[in-house]
Amino acid sequence: xxxxxxxxxxxxxxxxxxxxxxxxxxxxxxxxxxxxxxxxxxxxxxxxxxxxxxxxxxxxxxxxxxxxxxxxxxxxxxxxxxxxxxxxxxxxxxxxxxxxxxxxxxxxxxxxxxxxxxxxxxxxxxxxxxxxxxxxxxxxxxxxxxxxxxxxxxxxxxxxxxxxxxxxxxxxxxxxxxxxxxxxxxxxxxxxxxxxxxxxxxxxxxxxxxxxxxxxxxxxxxxxxxxxxxxxxxxxxxxxxxxxxxxxxxxxxxxxxxxxxxxxxxxxxxxxxxxxxxxxxxxxxxxxxxxxxxxxxx
Length: 298
Hints:
Radius of gyration: 19 Å
Order of helices and strands: HEEEEEHEEEEEHEEHEEEEEEEE
CATH superfamily of the largest domain: Mog1/PsbP, alpha/beta/alpha sandwich
Shape: globular
CATH topology of the largest domain: Protein Transport Mog1p, Chain A
Structural class: mainly beta
Strand order of the largest sheet: 3-4-5-10-9-8-7-6
CATH architecture of the largest domain: 3-Layer(aba) Sandwich
Strand content: over 45%
Number of domains: 2
Largest sheet: 8 strands, antiparallel
Number of strands: 20
């Protein structure tokens, strides 16, 4: 299932933020350690990690599957899209400890030969995770399998206690459109005898309707030159469901989007000079009709 085993991209190290060490997401009840020599950043689909020395990526993505057999069945389906991604499992889907599965994959990403290794973990408390490392078929080795297992072994789940927020955020966000836009261009240079450079643009749009439903769209486009690696990647996702604002155990207000397919997105809310921030990122908050950049609620 695509939304479980995640969209797959290769991202050059030049585009990654400098997060390292231990990461904790109390709103989801998930914590883990970034491997030594790797750095990472949060994105709309999960948490993305890259290395200064090793080609490829590690992507950790949340999922809502709580049954191990269902997770195994979804893993057997592999990953396919209309952007040249077609990855199928190699061999058996094996157990990973008592709460997970593991599998090797091969096929293509952006029409280029690729291999990947993934571990999926179920969480008795709620949100589980899938961790996948992938790179070109030529550069793949057993170290990618080991690094996924190492990351998976550091994952810890905890129960999250939430309650409905009384702060007024629900009223502020009713019939509002939240829009995030960001772009980056790294320029060009060289590393290890290869040319490097690239850029990306991200946009996310959330329409929060007073009747309790939302409309959602996000897109990211990336282009880069890594001396013969994958040349481009594109992802888009749309979904709909219900929204609410809750308070986590730390007293933070959380915007919770519950998609009809079972996925749950959560954003920590903050307000500075009447500017809206979700997970520390500035989102433009607009009202009115669709024609003047308001939400599609009417």
